[in-house]
Amino acid sequence: MIKDVNNRFTQKIEASHRKQPKNSRISVQLDSVNRQRRVDEIGNWSRALNLAERRDDPDRTDLIRIFKNMRIDGHINGIITTLINKVLAKDFLIVDSEGNEDEKAKLFFESKWFPRYLTWSIEARFYGFSLIQLNDIVDGQFKDMELIDREFVIPDLHIVKQSDTRFSGSDVSWDYTAPNFRDWYIFIGEDKDLGLFNSVAPQAIAKKHMFSALWQFIELFGMPFRVGKTAIDDPAQKKNMIDMLGGMGRAGWGVFGEDDIIEYVQAIDADSAAFIDSIQLANQEISKNFTGVSGLFDDKAFVGSAEAQERVVKELIMSFTRTIMFDIDDGLIPRMQKQGAFPEDRFFRWKADDLLSTMEKGDLISRLLPMITMTPDEIGKELGLKFEAPVADPDSPAGKKVAARVLEIYNKTKKEGK
């Protein structure tokens, strides 16, 4: 009896503190090298895509580097950040097989590693994958998780290569699906999926060059060009003119001989609008590839399309959250349970309350009230409102007056789309 109690106590301590074996820590064995970002061309992307799609020895290193450069694009970053923030703001539940909420089990996810896990899960759809290293368990919790740099990962072969140079079969690598690795790593995505970034690479690369051309156009034609004429053969006078013009601001300037002529030839009716239109077109194509519609993340939204766009956003978020839920139930939780860091027979679920807006809840309640009975407190709780005064009898004159006023406010708010 005493021996059995001691064994159970020892097992509990071992489960609450468990270190990841050193020989399975891939992240500390990578040969990381600081590389300068380069200016990408369509040809670079095309060559990188060919390397990534090779059948025998695929390698995504160059493609991932291009994707990283794309990630800093303002429009692309805005879309991804919006999606991440909306998912991180959603509440979730941990339930048993009968659907009963387990608040104690939910505490396992109330840690800094979980928002990072959600972020990497969302990014997987854009990069094509995310490979997560779980790391040590301390006090029954993962101390921290770590994303394996995607430049080192070859999903097609299920390996992580030691170097971020082009891979060959004789190079050092690790199979993250091998028995001594698979319990400590979670792969999110599909082996052959190159991600949404790949579908918008031509537009994103062209857009960067268009921005560069726009700045050059503004520099040449947006600010007056300063011309200094002097005795150009006299070094002293030439130097004085150069120093003077160079200290007069950022506009273009030049030093010429007294008889020299400089002329700028501008295309007929050319202005910055042509560049801006091209950039906006690229943004529309990027939005369409990412979300299915072009105007979803634009600053200007037309009244007639606002409700349709709102529905698209909800469907988009639901698509991400649904995939994340499956990945957690099928990948994360089983590994947590195997390491003794999570109770058995528990599942992850998103809370459904925030799937409806306040206006939609109000409209639903107004349609249901003739058929059901709800107290003012219940209605207020569902809508996030608090009634400070008693509600009048709906059949009394005062009640009818209040009802008419409430209906007026409701219709006005609905019309304005608030």
Overview of this structure, please?
The protein has 13 helices and 12 strands. The protein has helices spanning 2-16, 42-52, 61-71, 74-88, 103-106, 113-127, 196-222, 235-246, 273-291, 303-338, 358-368, 376-383, 397-416; strands at 92-95, 129-133, 137-138, 141-142, 146-147, 153-154, 159-161, 173-175, 185-189, 226-230, 253-257, 347-350. A 3-stranded antiparallel β-sheet has the order 5-2-9. Strands 6-7-8 form a 3-stranded antiparallel β-sheet, with no helix packed on it. Helix 7 (196-222) packs antiparallel against helix 9. Residues 1-15 have low confidence and may be disordered.
Please identify the structural class as seen in this structure. mainly alpha
Please give the number of β-strands.
12
Order of helices and strands: HHHHEHHEEEEEEEEHEHEHHEHHH
Task: Please state the oligomeric state of the protein chains shown.
Answer: single chain
Overall geometry: flat
Q: Which range best describes the helical content: under 10%, 10-25%, 25-40%, 40-55%, 55-70% or over 70%?
A: 40-55%
Strand order of the largest sheet: 5-2-9
Helical run tally: 13
Outline the low-pLDDT stretches.
1-15
Measured on Cα atoms, how large is the radius of gyration? 30 Å
